[in-house]
Design goal:
The protein is mostly helical and 234 residues long. 77% of the residues lie in helices and 0% in strands. The protein has twelve helices and no strands. The longest helix is centred in the first third of the chain and has 33 residues.
Length: 234
């Protein structure tokens, strides 16, 4: 985790957040009366982008450990493969949690300065986004157990895009339905439309989304552990 927190992109993201706050007053001129909706869309996109890029770290971190034989060194200590893999997940997930929380705080400040009241909407968005990023981090772990860095990153992106377009998939016949059944349903965890139009979202729905995320994450990690146990890393 300490190694990840030294990544300079974190400071760049914080700078972008400051710029985002500083330009909040321009939304009214740019969006022809739709500034509130645009602010929510932009803020949500920023939170999602930061979360995705943070989760992507796991692909390169795990692949580097395997390439540089660091895994073999660690496993000579009283550390099993399961503990190593789960420790890698939690390290990256905490990194994701810190980054998305910082951006969400900045987003909340922007809305407060613009006198846009969304109630607990920010916390609900953050909870569901963290759930999505937990799934993405687990996907990165899963793919990295049998793929290289670039293929794993591409697979993460494709699964995220596919899972975010679940309604589009359902409208494209049998193949779309098969893909819909395989990829995680990130569309269920997307509250951008509801928040942008100030629709109320029950906490029970948020809790259900968090439970769904947790179950899917556990499933992916179990599959990753199974593959990693049987992988030759020498």
């Amino acid at each position: 985790l300490g190694r990840m927190l030294q990544i300079k992109s974190l400071y760049i993201l914080l700078l972008l957040g400051i710029v985002f706050i500083g330009t909040a007053s321009l939304y009214g001129d740019l969006s022809a009366g739709r500034e509130k909706e645009l602010m929510v869309d932009t803020g949500y996109a920023m939170i999602t982008l930061v979360g995705f890029l943070s989760a992507l770290v796991v692909v390169f971190d795990l692949s580097r450990d395997l390439r540089e034989k660091l895994v073999q060194t660690l496993l000579t200590k009283p550390l099993g493969r399961d503990h190593y893999l789960l420790g890698k997940f939690w390290g990256v997930f905490i990194f994701v949690l810190i980054n998305t929380s910082l951006v969400s705080i900045g987003f909340g400040v922007v809305l407060w300065l613009a006198k846009v009241w969304v109630g607990w909407g920010i916390m609900k968005i953050l909870a569901l986004t963290i759930g999505s990023m937990a799934i993405l981090t687990a996907l990165g772990i899963f793919f990295s157990t049998f793929l290289g860095e670039v293929p794993s990153a591409i697979a993460m992106l494709l699964f995220f895009l596919g899972g975010s377009a679940s309604q589009w998939l359902l409208a494209h016949g049998t193949f779309g339905k098969i893909v819909y059944g395989l990829v995680p349903n990130f569309d269920l965890l997307n509250m951008k439309l509801e928040l942008g139009h100030f629709f109320a979202v029950p906490w029970l729905y948020v809790a259900g989304g968090v439970v769904y995320s947790a179950l899917y994450t556990v499933f992916l990690l179990a599959m990753a552990v199974f593959i990693f146990r049987n992988r030759d890393i020498n």
